[in-house]
Write a structure and sequence with these properties.
The longest helix is centred in the N-terminal third of the chain and has 30 residues. With 417 residues, this protein is mostly helical. The radius of gyration is 22 Å and the shape is globular. Helix 1 packs antiparallel against helix 18 and helix 2 crosses helix 18.
Length: 417
């Protein structure tokens, strides 16, 4: 059967999905009594016309770049590293130990040392599943999932029993020294006359994440090791015939993957919290899977997808991490190239999820329904309509941005076969 023309594969299929998704999303919003045009305008104004909105978007995007790159590197070696949560959790511990027990005269030196600590702890946590996969045949998905829970329990013990300040009730470390605090976007881009990125936690680690994208690209496509990783991922038997050690590549690829996931803690632990707390990862390890899928396991695609998911993380908040992930997984899968079945999933999955939320809202007696349940219950009465429309607009905007990212990935990034 003849292949679809490249322009049609890159533009036409996502465009049709965009139109169908926009129509169905508008019908859902109309069905719960809101104006889809006003909702879309509100989304654009809140997310794109204010520096604070961009600040939150880029903060979340920084997390997703690191975890997306971690998953992408493992993908190239035909491994599914689902342990980004645990590796990022241990990366936070590495950051905290480096910053709490070593005096640093300047944040730049502290950031360099914290990067090494986060990468080392994340890599060590990925080493054990990698070794079990390479030597014992233990499936990497099972072991990394288990290690997520072990990491959470281990950090809980360490914070409660070892690192918590005496007399404190909160399971967290003390604040890091002032000299280790990272510059925020507000510090870097504001002037005496104009305050930019007011209240946003975006900080200098965003640029470190962008550099990581470039380094991973150079590693995978411009080095011998990267060639061996990709060759092993294409065919283990052919790689062995060429003299590439499966054990060596499995372990090295997972070490790199774990180090990247661990570096996510630079943003959350050193950048935002300025101390080590529980649950700092906020599901970013799992969202990294969708980011890598949508980005076709290419660093440039991961960058674009991370910006998209950062937008959604800002607009929908932590409460809807699962909703965001499930909604976009179908469209992300379509971005990998599994057409037409995945295109159907890309349209059906969001509608199923949103429909479920609407039914759940009606069952709970919430007049706003859908993803607005939490807002309807917690926002002041005079603010409920505004926040409800804002969340609904984010769903529509998510569909639009999802398809645009898929178009970009299809047009500029070859399929990673």
């Amino acid at each position: 059967m003849d292949r679809m023309p490249h322009w049609a594969d890159a533009v036409l299929v996502p465009l049709i999905s965009l139109i169908l998704a926009a129509i169905l999303s508008a019908l859902v919003i109309i069905g719960i009594g809101e104006d889809p045009v006003a909702a879309f305008n509100l989304m654009v104004e809140g997310a794109l016309m204010r520096s604070a909105g961009w600040g939150y978007t880029l903060y979340y995007a920084t997390n997703f770049m690191f975890t997306g790159l971690a998953v992408a590197v493992a993908f190239h070696a035909r491994m599914f590293n689902i342990g980004g949560e645990g590796q990022a959790t241990l990366g936070g511990l590495g950051v905290a130990l480096v910053l709490l027990y070593i005096p640093w005269p300047h944040w730049s030196l502290a950031l360099l040392a914290a990067t090494l600590g986060a990468a080392a702890f994340g890599a060590v946590w990925a080493f054990i599943p990698a070794y079990l996969q390479a030597k014992r045949g233990s499936h990497i998905v099972i072991t990394t999932i288990m290690f997520n829970f072990i990491a959470a329990a281990f950090l809980n013990y360490v914070l409660v029993n070892l690192l918590r300040p005496q007399g404190a009730m909160d399971p967290a470390t003390e604040k890091f020294p002032e000299a280790t605090h990272l510059p925020t976007f507000r510090d870097m881009f504001s002037s005496a006359e104009t305050i930019m990125f007011r209240g946003a936690p975006a900080n200098v680690t965003f640029f470190l994440a962008v550099i990581a994208c470039l380094v991973v690209w150079l590693l995978l496509w411009r080095t011998r090791l990267g060639y061996e990783i990709r060759a092993f991922g294409h065919s283990e038997s052919a790689a062995k015939y060429a003299g590439i050690s499966p054990v060596r590549i499995t372990v090295i690829a997972m070490l790199i993957s774990g180090a990247l996931a661990g570096m996510m803690a630079l943003n959350t632990t050193q950048g935002e919290s300025e101390r080590l707390i529980l649950n700092a990862t906020e599901g970013a390890g799992f969202i990294g899977i969708a980011v890598a899928l949508m980005g076709r396991s290419h660093p440039f695609g991961v960058f674009l997808a991370a910006i998209l998911f950062g937008f959604l993380g800002d607009r929908l908040g932590r409460k809807y991490t699962f909703l965001v992930t499930v909604t976009l997984m179908g469209i992300a899968t379509a971005g990998v190239g599994l057409i037409p079945d995945a295109a159907t999933i890309g349209i059906a999955a969001p509608i199923i999820v949103i429909g479920f939320r609407i039914l759940q809202g009606l069952a709970l007696g919430g007049e706003y329904g859908g993803a607005a349940i939490y807002v309807a219950e917690h926002a002041p009465p005079e603010k409920r309509g505004f926040y409800t429309s804002f969340i609904q607009a984010s769903v529509v905007g998510g569909f639009v941005l999802s398809i645009l990212v898929v178009i970009a990935c299809r047009a500029f990034i070859p399929a990673q076969d």
